Every structure is written in C-alpha cells, then in structure tokens.
C-alpha cells in the first residue's frame, strides 16, 4: 500500500498522528488533513510542499520543537555516527566514525546556534557525516535570523518529504 493510500484509509485522529510524526507543525497537519484523499504518492508530496510553503514563522518554529537537538547528548551523537558496518547496505553510505572533537564541536555549535536564533539547528541529515553537519552548522551561524528561519524551513520540508515516503515502509500489507 502506498503512503497516500495508507493515509486515506486512516481515521482523522490516526492520520493526524501519522502526519505529526512527519512534521510537528499543527497548521501543516491540519492543511494536510483537509487535502485528503490523496490521489497517489506524488500528489501527497506535492500537497506537502504546497501546504508547507504557506507555513508562518510560528509554524516553522513549532515544527522544529519536534526534533531532538543535535549535540545535546554527546553519547547519543557518538552512537549515531559510529562506523556504518552494522547499518543496512547503502544507508548513510560514506559516513565515517566521528571523532570526539567533532562531536563536541557539534554540541557547542548547536548551543551557540540556539542562543542566536532561538530554535534548534535542523538539517536533513540523511547521508551526511558529523563533519558535514558541523560544516553546515558553521556556514549557517552568520545568517541573520530571518534568513536562517527560511533555511530551517527548507530543511524541515526535506525531512517531511522523507518521512512521508517512509510511511509506506510501515504500512501493513
């Protein structure tokens, strides 16, 4: 069953829960619920983009509260960026083990980011190493708050689409 077909079969409360796992903005979830039924997965993703493009700054900030802080827990980071030997083939390919210095810099950079912008640093991390994420964080720190919120919104949009696509992976046959 496709993600679109799955969402179409759910009650409104269950669909709300599934959509909230994809994006924590209640306005986005409400917009998506109002757009059901979805013709197919392509239409689902197009609708997700359209609804997200209408997100207010408050909607973006709300969505960001549903993400864990990168670097808040160095032990969790260490586990996330261990060697990929045990991971599924092709998943996060090319991610090397992150060294302690990188993990600490990522944690400290996120603290600085949050202090400056008032929200967590978010990036679509699929396929990115800890070093690449640190580089992106550093590149975004000089942004002004308005520009940075647009960057965060764009990253949230990417994450949302990936999560919507993954819904089909968790659908009973």
Overview of this protein structure:
The chain has 173 residues and is mostly helical. It folds into two domains: 3-63 and 163-170, Oxo-4-hydroxy-4-carboxy-5-ureidoimidazoline decarboxylase (UraD-like), CATH 1.10.3330.10; 68-152, UraD-like (Orthogonal Bundle), CATH 1.10.3330.10. It has helices spanning 3-9, 12-22, 26-35, 41-53, 57-64, 74-80, 100-117, 130-140, 145-167. Helix 7 packs parallel to helix 8 (130-140). The longest helix is centred in the C-terminal third of the chain and has 23 residues, at 145-167. The model is unreliable at 80-96 (pLDDT under 50).
What is the topological layout?
Elements: H1 3-9, H2 12-22, H3 26-35, H4 41-53, H5 57-64, H6 74-80, H7 100-117, H8 130-140, H9 145-167
Please summarize what this structure is.
The protein is built from 9 helices and no strands. The chain has 173 residues and is mainly alpha-helical.
Descriptive tags:
UraD-like; 62% helix; mainly alpha; 0% strand
The CATH architecture of the largest domain is Orthogonal Bundle
Count of individual helical segments: 9
Stretches with pLDDT under 50, minimum 5 residues: 80-96
Q: Which sequence of SSEs, written as H and E, runs from N to C?
A: HHHHHHHHH
* CATH class group of the largest domain: Mainly Alpha
Helical fraction equals 55-70%
Number of domains: 2
Largest sheet: none
Distance from first to last alpha carbon = 6 Å
What would you report as the Rg, rounded to the nearest angstrom? 17 Å
Determine the strand fraction and express it as a percent band.
under 5%
The helix-and-strand class reads mainly alpha
CATH topology of the largest domain: UraD-like
CATH superfamily heading of the largest domain? Oxo-4-hydroxy-4-carboxy-5-ureidoimidazoline decarboxylase
């Amino acid at each position: 069953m496709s993600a679109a077909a799955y969402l179409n079969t759910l009650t409104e409360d269950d669909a709300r829960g599934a959509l909230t796992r994809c994006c924590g903005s209640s306005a986005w979830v409400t917009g998506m619920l109002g757009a059901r039924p979805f013709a197919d997965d392509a239409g689902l993703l197009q609708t997700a983009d359209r609804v997200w493009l209408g997100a207010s700054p408050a909607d973006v900030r709300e969505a960001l509260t549903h993400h864990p802080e990168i670097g808040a827990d160095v032990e969790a980071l260490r586990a996330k960026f261990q060697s990929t030997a045990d991971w599924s083939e092709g998943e996060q390919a090319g991610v090397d083990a992150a060294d302690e210095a990188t993990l600490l810099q990522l944690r400290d950079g996120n603290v600085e980011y949050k202090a400056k912008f008032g929200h967590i640093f978010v990036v679509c991390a699929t396929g990115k190493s800890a070093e690449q994420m640190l580089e992106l964080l550093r590149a975004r720190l000089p942004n002004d708050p308005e520009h940075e919120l647009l960057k965060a919104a764009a990253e949230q949009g990417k994450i949302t689409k990936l999560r919507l696509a993954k819904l089909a992976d968790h659908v009973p046959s």
